[in-house]
TrEMBL record:
The lineage of its organism: Bacteria, Bacillati, Bacillota, Bacilli, Bacillales. Its main location: other. One of its GO terms (cellular component) is cell envelope. It comes from Paenibacillus xylanivorans. Signal peptide: none annotated. This is Alginate lyase. Pfam families: DUF4962, Hepar_II_III_C. Residues 508-682 form the Heparinase II/III-like C-terminal domain.
Length: 789
């Protein structure tokens, strides 16, 4: 249809995208991972006042017969409802000056195009290519999403027919889908318990960490009580459970929506209370009288509105997508709450549409089509826990299947490679479980992805994690977030059992290009033989829950962390967190003149302190990765010119690390290594003997002369009271002489504790390069390093 357009009375503001903002995409450089393409652009207005019109055409002149038009679009991101034919395309957008965002949705496209519209000027035209064979992941338009959706309750997880089928299965077999365990451990404990009192304010309304934690644990228990009692009562038609569920629900609905559990006072508590009300309102809807329905609905609507206002208006995650809690609240709050309110509160559809559109287009801001997660495996776990639950709710209710997107098809690889079942202290980023085995919830989530993809290695991961991390269900980092009995019930009901397969033939090297992580493995399938080196150099810098750790590595071998991620998780914002965990000095990395990478709280500098993986491959039995971290040091070491780290994994047996540091003026470099056991220092070497494994480290070559080795068991800058009574960790610093250019070659040889070994080497430096030869099992490998002049 031709766009009837008045002459533009206003230009279109097209700001240049910065590091925090969504970009203009796709363009001629974009490599699409799915079909249709996702369209994003910098918002033309700060406050999202007017809707947009978007056109896509096979030609740059946008002839009517070859152009697709989409309007009105309320925000600066869009996923079409149709698959594109392979080929070249052009796209542009404009503002609909007369059309307020609140005035409607794509349902009005014909009306919008059929009348004269005052529009801004068109944007710059961008070109892109749709290749053949991409995964097809269109999303239903806003007008069509809920046409066939049931208007009755319940609708979260199961509808009326699904509820009856579950009841029939349990009647035939009380252990069906784990129902007996769910009843005994996650329902009955709440049936006779008095409802939890509304949390009290902080002293003088100043946040205190123990009270903050207690508050959101209480609210998590509110969610458990209401959700589980409501489901069990409806499934079993049990009046005792239904009455207990109503008592809890009406009690919590009476809490002050603007008080201690509001979004602005304690967002974690607010998320949990809102979800509790959603599940209770939905599953108990037909058990409540009209006054009770109104009471719960008012509280639920207001709490949902608080979150929607923060996400869409204040945080604007469609402009700046790096607000971790706001993104998580799409799945923990907006999806379940808006689904419960849909067809009853008009605002709910708009908020739910926003969440769905976000998941279709912008998710995840922390990764991409490789399935990586820049904040690390623990925040992958918290993010995935809520988003997979939301994906299942949407799929079951509206038939929208986001699991088909490349990210969800591949993201199980991220924990598999960077957080394998036998590894400890071998990853990066904030981790509340630091030092413990792989988190049980991570295993459950990888099983969820096994159900989605059929990947048998994912099922193997789940089985190994469940074996290695039993009994942690009540730990704060589990109990305060999820209930495994409920998880198990839902998964076993919704998905078939996948047969596990040991990852014997898994590729030994995995490069997550989207986040700048590379993992190299040998024998992942056998903990007694497994060796793993993980290196990170990421475009995300030290933003959010990432650390100042570009070009850092960890090494885990034969069942034990060797080059470890040391320290303890005390609390986010503690001195341990600020002065050690986030700092480069806590990493297996480099300091320059005693200075690390930027790790403070200026987000501009956090995002600028980036790294990059330039190359990574596995070839002829050897692994190789080259990473650059120059920008990570730029604000803290102004005289830095180049910082490059190369790591060779040779014969799946030993590692050679080559560091290149070039500076504008002479300075020293400190080469850092961290371990859980004392190091034996001797000359230019160090030895680590743990319980199961050991490591021989040798500084084979340093261009400025011999290094000065020292060791400490202190955590520099940390309040000693925070780690009093905890086990010591050990920190090696190997310091160079002052020079403008440095080349450091380090040999690391892991071994089983009962089978110590070393790798002989020699150096040939007769010409303009340094030629290093290493021999293991009768095979010699050569590595060349340029000289410094």
């Amino acid at each position: 249809m031709e766009v009837k357009r008045k002459l533009a009375k206003r230009s279109l503001y097209q700001p240049i995208s910065g590091p925090f903002h969504v970009d203009y995409a796709p363009d001629e450089h974009t490599v699409l991972a799915e079909n249709p393409p996702r369209f994003t652009w910098m918002a033309a207005q700060q406050e999202d006042q007017n809707a947009y019109i978007l056109q896509v055409s096979v030609g740059p002149s946008f002839q009517e017969e070859e152009t697709m038009t989409f309007a009105p679009l309320p925000y600066n991101f869009f996923t079409p409802d149709r698959v594109f034919e392979p080929g070249d395309y052009y796209w542009r957008y404009a503002l609909l000056v007369d059309h307020r965002v609140q005035q409607g949705s794509e349902a009005e496209v014909d009306a919008v195009l059929g009348k004269q519209q005052e529009m801004s000027a068109w944007s710059e035209v961008r070109q892109f290519t749709v290749p053949a064979g991409l995964p097809e992941t269109p999303i239903p338009s806003r007008a069509q999403r809920y046409v066939s959706a049931d208007t009755s309750h319940p609708r979260l997880w199961l509808g009326e027919s699904g509820l009856q089928a579950l009841a029939d299965g349990i009647a035939s077999d009380p252990s069906y889908c784990g129902w007996d365990v769910f009843m005994a451990n996650s329902v009955e404990p709440w049936a006779n318990r008095e409802p939890i009192s509304e949390p009290l304010p902080y002293p003088d309304n100043k946040r205190v960490a123990p009270l903050w934690r207690r508050m959101y644990i209480d609210c998590q228990e509110v969610l458990y009580a209401i959700r589980h009692l409501s489901i069990a009562g409806r499934v079993l038609h049990d009046e005792r459970l239904l009455e207990a569920a109503k008592t809890w629900l009406l009690h919590v609905a009476a809490w002050d929506t603007e008080g201690t559990t509001s979004r602005d006072y304690n967002d974690e508590a607010a998320f949990r209370v809102a979800a509790a009300l959603a599940w209770g309102y939905d599953w108990l809807h037909d058990e409540l009288n009209s006054e009770e329905q109104d009471m719960v609905r008012r509280s639920l609507l207001r709490r949902t509105e608080q979150v929607a206002q923060h996400v869409m208006v204040r945080s604007k995650i469609h402009h700046v997508p790096y607000d971790s809690h706001a993104v998580r609240s799409l799945s923990s709050v907006l999806v379940p709450c808006c689904m419960a309110l849909l067809h009853e509160e008009p605002k709910a559809a708009a908020w739910l549409d926003y969440a769905i559109d976000y998941y279709a287009c912008l998710y995840s801001p922390w990764g991409g089509s490789d399935g990586g997660w820049a904040e690390g495996p623990m925040y992958w776990t918290t993010g995935m826990a809520y988003v997979t639950e939301a994906m299942n709710l949407l799929r079951n209710y509206a038939g929208i299947d986001f699991f088909r997107r490349p990210f969800f098809q591949r993201t199980g690889d991220f924990p598999l490679y960077v957080y394998p079942p036998d590894a400890r202290r071998a990853s990066f980023g904030d981790q509340s479980t630091l030092g413990d085995p792989v988190n049980l919830k991570t295993g459950y989530l990888v099983r969820q992805l096994a159900g989605v993809t059929g990947n048998r290695w994912y099922q193997w991961y789940f089985e190994r994690v469940r074996q290695s991390d039993p009994g942690t269900e009540g730990a704060f980092y589990n109990y305060g977030w999820w209930d495994f009995n409920f998880d198990d019930l839902v998964y076993r009901h919704d998905y078939p059992q996948v047969e596990e397969e040991s990852p014997v033939d898994i590729a030994p090297l995995k490069w997550f290009r989207d986040v700048g992580w590379v993992a190299m493995h040998h024998r992942m399938d056998d903990p007694d033989e497994h060796m793993m080196l993980l290196l990170k150099s990421s475009r995300y810098g030290s933003i959010s829950h990432s650390h100042a750790d570009q070009n850092s590595f960890t090494l885990h071998a034969f069942g034990e962390p060797l080059a470890a991620d040391t320290g303890y998780y005390i609390a986010h914002g503690s001195s341990f967190h600020r002065e050690w965990r986030r700092q480069t000095r806590s990493k297996n990395n480099l300091l320059i003149g005693g200075a690390g990478q930027y790790a403070e709280n200026n987000k501009v500098l956090n995002m600028a302190a980036t790294g990059q993986i330039e190359e990574a491959y596995w070839r002829d039995g050897d692994g190789y990765v080259r990473a650059v971290a120059t920008d990570a040091y730029a604000s803290t070491v102004p005289h830095v010119k180049r910082v490059v780290r190369e790591i060779h994994f040779l014969q799946s047996s030993y590692f050679v690390i080559v560091d290149h540091i070039d500076l504008e003026k002479p300075d020293s470099v400190q080469w850092l290594f961290h371990a859980l056991h004392p190091l034996q220092l001797k000359g230019q070497s160090f030895r680590l003997n743990g319980n199961k494994a050991g490591l021989e480290g040798t500084f084979v070559y340093a261009s400025s002369g011999e290094l000065s080795l020292s060791q400490t068991d202190q955590f520099a800058g940390v309040d000693p009271a925070e780690y009093e009574g905890l086990e010591k960790h050990y920190h090696l610093s190997a310091e160079t002489r002052s020079a403008s250019s440095h080349r450091i070659v380090t040999l690391l040889v892991p071994y089983k504790i009962e089978e110590p070994k070393y790798v002989p080497y020699f150096i040939d430096d007769q010409d303009h390069g340094i030629h290093l030869y290493f021999t293991d099992n009768g095979v010699t490998k050569k590595i060349e390093v340029s000289k410094t002049y």
